[in-house]
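[Discussion] Sanity-checking designs against the backbone

I'm trying to build intuition for which residues belong where. Below is a C-alpha cell string of 356 positions. I'd appreciate it if someone posts a full sequence so I can compare it with mine line by line.
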C-alpha cells in the first residue's frame, strides 16, 4: 500500500508548469495577462499555488500554449487531491491513538474484510476506515451511541472491540439475502428451528440460517473478541431486516441454543429499534428476564420441567437421557438448565455438554 506522502513524487503543481512555459516562451506574467484577459494578480497566485486553474482559465491557456484544457484541468485536479491527501495524512497519524483499544491483530488473524496483516499503524488506520466504511475513526453512529449506553452495565467491556465485532456482523449480513422481516413468519421459523435442538448447534447452523432468512433475520456466528463478554446481540438494521449475532462465549453448545432463542425473543416481543445485548455479567432487567423465560420454555416447557424436577431424588445419566429424549432436546441442554438453576453443580454431568 502506498503511503499518502509518496503522491508528492509524481504530482506536479500546476503553477510550476505554467511558470516553466512562460520562461520557455520568453513571456512575462503581464504578457500572459494581456493574452488571456486574466488579472495579473490571479496569474501570480496560480503560479504560487494559491489560486486554482479553473475550467475557464484552462480553456484560455489552451489557446495561448496550444496545450489542451483537459491537461490543465487534470493537473489542477491531481494537485488539489494531493493537498487534501496531505491533510488526510495528518489526520491518519492523529487517529493512530484509536489502535490502542482495537484488537487489530486478532481481527487480521481471522481474515476479516479489509483487515490485512500489518504492523504499520498508518496502514492499520486506513484498513480500519475501509472496514467501518468511514472517512475517519472518530465517526459517530446511532449504533455506537447505543453501545455506549450499554457499556455502563459491564465496566470491563471494550466498546471498541464490541463495535468491531458488530461491524463484522453487519458486513456478513449484507451478503445474506433475506425475505422482509415479518414477526408472524419468524414465529413459524422458531417452531421449525426447535426441531433441530437435539443436535449440535454448529452442525445445524446452515439450516438455522436458512430458516431465519425466511423471517427476515440474518444469523451470524462469530467467536467473541477479547473484552466483549458477549453471548449474543440482536437488532433491526432496517424495517425489513434484522441481525442476530452469536459468539462462542462459554464454549458450550447449550449456551448457543439458549442464546439463539433469547435473541429471537427480543425480535419477536420487544422494541423495533432497540439494541439487545446478551451480556455475560450484570443485572437483568424485565426485558432480559422475559427473553430468558421465552428461551427456557422453547427449549423445555417450564411446566414439564418443574414437574419432572420434583419427581427426581437423584440424577443419573439414564434419567437425564430419558428426559432429553422425551422432550426432543440434547442431554446437554437438560444438564445446562439444571446447572443454571443450581440443582447441579457446574462440574456435574458435563460429559453430556457438547463443547465448541
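Best answer:
Here's mine. Compare freely.
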Amino acid at each position: 500500500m502506498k503511503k499518502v506522502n509518496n503522491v508528492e513524487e509524481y504530482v506536479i503543481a500546476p503553477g510550476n508548469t505554467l511558470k516553466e512555459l512562460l520562461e520557455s516562451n520568453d513571456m512575462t506574467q503581464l504578457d500572459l495577462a494581456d493574452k488571456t484577459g486574466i488579472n495579473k494578480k490571479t496569474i501570480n497566485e496560480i503560479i504560487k499555488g494559491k489560486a486554482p486553474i479553473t475550467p475557464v482559465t484552462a480553456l484560455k491557456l489552451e489557446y495561448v500554449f496550444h496545450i489542451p484544457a483537459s491537461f490543465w484541468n487534470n493537473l489542477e485536479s491531481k494537485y488539489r487531491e494531493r493537498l487534501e491527501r496531505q491533510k488526510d495524512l495528518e489526520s491518519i497519524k492523529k487517529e493512530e491513538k484509536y489502535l490502542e483499544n482495537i484488537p487489530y491483530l486478532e481481527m487480521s488473524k481471522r481474515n476479516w474484510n479489509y483487515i490485512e496483516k500489518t504492523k504499520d499503524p498508518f496502514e492499520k488506520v486506513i484498513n480500519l476506515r475501509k472496514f467501518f466504511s468511514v472517512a475517519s475513526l472518530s465517526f459517530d453512529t446511532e449504533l455506537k451511541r447505543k453501545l455506549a449506553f450499554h457499556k455502563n452495565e459491564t465496566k470491563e467491556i471494550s466498546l471498541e472491540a464490541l463495535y468491531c465485532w458488530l461491524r463484522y456482523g453487519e458486513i456478513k449480513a449484507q451478503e445474506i439475502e433475506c425475505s422482509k422481516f415479518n414477526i408472524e413468519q419468524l414465529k413459524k421459523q422458531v417452531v421449525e428451528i426447535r426441531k433441530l435442538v437435539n443436535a449440535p448447534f454448529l452442525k445445524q447452523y446452515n439450516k438455522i440460517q436458512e430458516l431465519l432468512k425466511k423471517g427476515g433475520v440474518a444469523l451470524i456466528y462469530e467467536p467473541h473478541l477479547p473484552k466483549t463478554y458477549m453471548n449474543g446481540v440482536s437488532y433491526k438494521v432496517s424495517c425489513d431486516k434484522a441481525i442476530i449475532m452469536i459468539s462462542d462465549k462459554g464454549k458450550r453448545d447449550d449456551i448457543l441454543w439458549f442464546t439463539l432463542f433469547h435473541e429471537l425473543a427480543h425480535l419477536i416481543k420487544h422494541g423495533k429499534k432497540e439494541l439487545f445485548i446478551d451480556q455475560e455479567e450484570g443485572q437483568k432487567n424485565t426485558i432480559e428476564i422475559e427473553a430468558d423465560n421465552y428461551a427456557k420454555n422453547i427449549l423445555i416447557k417450564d411446566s414439564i420441567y418443574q414437574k419432572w424436577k420434583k419427581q427426581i431424588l437423584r440424577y443419573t445419566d439414564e434419567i437425564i437421557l430419558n428426559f432429553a429424549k422425551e422432550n426432543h432436546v440434547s442431554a446437554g441442554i437438560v444438564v445446562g438448565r439444571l446447572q443454571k438453576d443450581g440443582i447441579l453443580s457446574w462440574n456435574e454431568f458435563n460429559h453430556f455438554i457438547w463443547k465448541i
